[in-house]
Amino acid sequence: MQRQPLATYEFWFVVGSQFLYGKETLEQVAKHAQVMVENMNASSLLPCKLVYKATVKTPEEIEQCVKDANYDDNCAGLITWMHTFSPSKMWIRGLDLLQKPYCHLHTQFNRTIPDTEIDMDFMNLNQSAHGDREHAFIAARMHTKRKIVTGFWEDASVQLKLASWMRSAVGAIESRKLKVVRFGDNMRNVAVTEGDKVGVQMQLGWQVNTWGVGDLIRELDQVSEAEVQAQMDIYQNRYVFATKDMETVRYQAREEVAMRKFLQREGAYAYTNTFEDLQQMRQLPGLASQDLMAEGYGYGGEGDWKVSAMTSLVKRMTEGMGKGTTFMEDYTYHMEKGNELSLGAHMLEICPSITTDKAHIEVHELGIGGKEPPARLVFEGHPGKALLASLVDMGGRVRLIVNEIEVVKPIYRMPNLPVARVMWKPEPDLNQASHLWMLSGGAHHAVLSYDATAEMLEDWCEIMGIEFVHINSRTTVESLKMQLFLSDLAWKLR
């Protein structure tokens, strides 16, 4: 099953009005809405198509529009705007039925007030200033989850806000479809990789199921030499060979072909494995997993299905942005006073989407697991603003923790560390960020993304109805303790 390209999703622009103002005014409302949609689509700032769907004027029209949106697989959400005054009791039934992400755009068609031309006809037509307040009240009264974007619709800042929310909304839609394949169980005695899979499926939609490693081995045995060679040709095009051990690289190619077939057959875009459960597999998939991640699959080491799913979804939300997203793990620190840094890596499986150079294929001992030395991609993550995101199961609920970071060029060559590596400064600083991360229960596994923003992930959490913790330069231990305390109380009351 192939994933629907992000750009093929559409968002319905639904404009509120009523019959009070007459036919001519309603025609003008529709014309203005169409102009807005055409211009916003033409700006190329929106990742998905905006579709003017209707000017709704009655409770029945609103209800039907919502029902149509709920059952249209291409519709990823509604964006509403009240050009005139739209009495919000008309919206109650529709908002109560709405199952798609919802954004309220508070804007107006004209940027400025026309000094000499303004009259009561103009005022009757251009009533967003109080029409949107009426609309916002009913959403607040009904506790309806929604995003509010304010500002003039032609401004890039407004369209970029809409664009970010669109990506969050697609992430929510895709979350409900996501399947995660676990090849074997998770690493023994590890706490953070556990979790309530039934609860997560109820809340986030993820279908997380296990297949025996023997099932993958049978798939591996059926891979033809022609398929292996075709994968090797892809490696030749994408990467630099820094090894002469072609047999080892070919085994990784065989593993990748087998895993891709397995995932495609199951309609899954995320998977896990662990070095503790490889059975007759000769190597832990390294290069194989890295290349699959580069194609958009999510991965989680040691059976961590939560980070696998989040890697897949963040890659999906940031599709086409191009700076890179990967599975990541904090490994060790550089604690020079005033220049504290974290070194992120993993045994093998870091996605090459985060480097601006061609990654090198190398073969080295793994040091654990008792299997053959696996081929892997070795590279450095590129400098730039990024974030770490960790989804954890807090018992009865899940929490997404996000830390803003600055990736820097590694200050050491590390010639004897043959893995992909990333070095970063977390906000507010390493010591404080570590304290805040651990206070929140953040895992040692995370998603690192240069493309996702905290606002994008917060909007996704809002749509999904889960807890969000944001660690940045302004976060203090005292403020976070209070936030976590109040959040615990709120969730217990729920």
TrEMBL record:
Residues 179-320 form the L-arabinose isomerase central domain. Binds 1 Mn(2+) ion per subunit. Transmembrane segments: none annotated. Its EC number is 5.3.1.4. The keyword Metal-binding applies. Pfam families: AraA_central, AraA_N, Arabinose_Iso_C. It comes from the Bacteria. GO terms for molecular function: L-arabinose isomerase activity; manganese ion binding. Mn(2+) binds at E302, E329, H346, H445. Its cofactor is Mn(2+). One of its GO terms (cellular component) is cytosol. It is an enzyme of class 5 (isomerase). InterPro entries: Ara_Isoase_C, AraA_central, AraA_N, AraA_N_sf, Fuc/Ara_isomerase_C, Fucose_isomerase_N/cen_sf, Lara_isomerase. Belongs to the arabinose isomerase family. HAMAP family: Arabinose_Isome. This is L-arabinose isomerase.
